[in-house]
Please model this.
Amino acid sequence: MIKIRSFFLIQLFFFLYFYQQAYAFPWMVRHGYVNCNSCHFSPSGGGILTPYGREISGSLLSTWASERESKFAHDLVSTPEWLNLGGDIRAIEIYRNTPQVQAYRFLNMQEDLEAALTYGKFTGVINAGLFMQQPQLRRFYLNYRPSEQLSVRAGKFRLAYGLMDPDHTTPINRGLGWDEGSETYNAEVAWLGENLNLYLTLDLGPLNSNSIQQFSEEKGLALRVGVPFTEYFQIGTSYFYGSSTLSKRNAIGPFLILGFANHFFLLSEVDYQNIYDSLMSNQTAWMTWNRLDYEFIQGLHGYLTYGLKRSQFQNASIPSSQSSSWGLGSQWFPRPHFEFDLKWQLQSTPAFPSQTLHYATLLFHYYL
Amino acid sequence: MKTRRFLKIGTSFLLTGLLAVLTEILIHPFSFADSPLSLTLKQGSGWVEFHATGHPSAIRITGKGDKLQGNLFVNHRTVTGQVQFDLSSLNTGIEVRTRHMKEKYLEISQYPEAKFTLTQMELSQDLTGNTSMKQVPFQGKLFLHGIEKLISGTAEIQTQEKQVKFNAEFSLKIGDYGIVLPTFAGITMADEVKILVQDTTRIQSAN
Model:
């Protein structure tokens, strides 16, 4: 009995954290990192780390680190300067308690490798691996940087919109149809300046996607504008127009990243979405997601989250629906290459309007 | 008759003198106005902060230290004096970066202090009562990393109840001071660095 319980606890501890994709951490703005490409090869963040990003993962992100520990493969393998390698393993243990079911579920979410090859002002990035145990070529693009600020990119990647927080289950990601695996074929022009970052993305669609069916053949245009101000804040707004055979939609909303202090920050985003020209009646919705975070010691965070999605709030003839959740969590980067994220959420959904549902996750992330 | 006239003249002189004294008291409530003043900066009351940019990707690099001390003198609205800053108190918020800054670039074992000698600063008002002065230009000599260079900047000065608070701002090029451009894992810091200094101290008579 004790062995079974220990096994369960160990499993829970190591695997409750894997529902996130390898995206960037927008809250690094509070340390003066106004552009994602300080630490990531991708202009909009996430994925393979630059050499500087690796150093920062040891010296700023993690609780403990030795001198060369954050390098690729723990510095056991060296690569030429033009070649950078990375990879991720993510798994999650999910606990769900609803009036219908109380269940634990383990998901092996991601095992992939990623390479960035740089030649002059060009960088090619390719990512391949298993996602939900299915082989996929999830991300690949060619990035041209004619100047420090200007970036041109084409390929398959996730378009820039909003906070770009890694948690794809939030209303501002999943609620807008940008869930896990929602990378699309895009052409992007970006300005990555000190006082302005701007992304204009032509979305050519996913071609073959496992994203939400309604948006699976969608093509569109996205604009994201972020303005860093003072040393620790960034405000911005995003707009997306999408068109598919099923419908058209507009999504727009502001976001903000407020670093009150080096160890205390708020992420917030609100979006309005209008779906029209659909076989069904027009749909309107607004959604928000917020995270208030305190870093107790370097690498160890405690946070509160609040998410809400409210649909059909404008149309009196159709009943509106509302989902919301409060979350309490802790994210820990003990050493470079390792991340744990434990979160407990109290959810309210239209399916169980008078019940509070419990949803907990423990995510484990290892980055090579 | 003569006695009465003398009394009248004497009374007039007395009233005029009294009026003059009253006017002086009302207009200049502190007797500091024309006497030399001293401003002593003690460690812990102020700070020095630098702002720089790392390229590519426009990283905002800041550092702050609080070991600032020195003496400034105000004589007929002219301010002079010297301020020292202990560079070992600088912290950039990232341990490795702070260590590299001190050891590789500022070389504080050889050059532990920065010294600033204020050579020219004219106030537009006396440091009396409650005053506020903005964009007050100043010039001085900054001794850093073994090299002395002329610099100029602006200051904002506020006085309240015999306390003076100032914020000074200037820019420098670290290359002028023989400091190698810091570079780390593909990021290089820009040559130009903005310096902010803030302190609050009591206004004292220099006599």
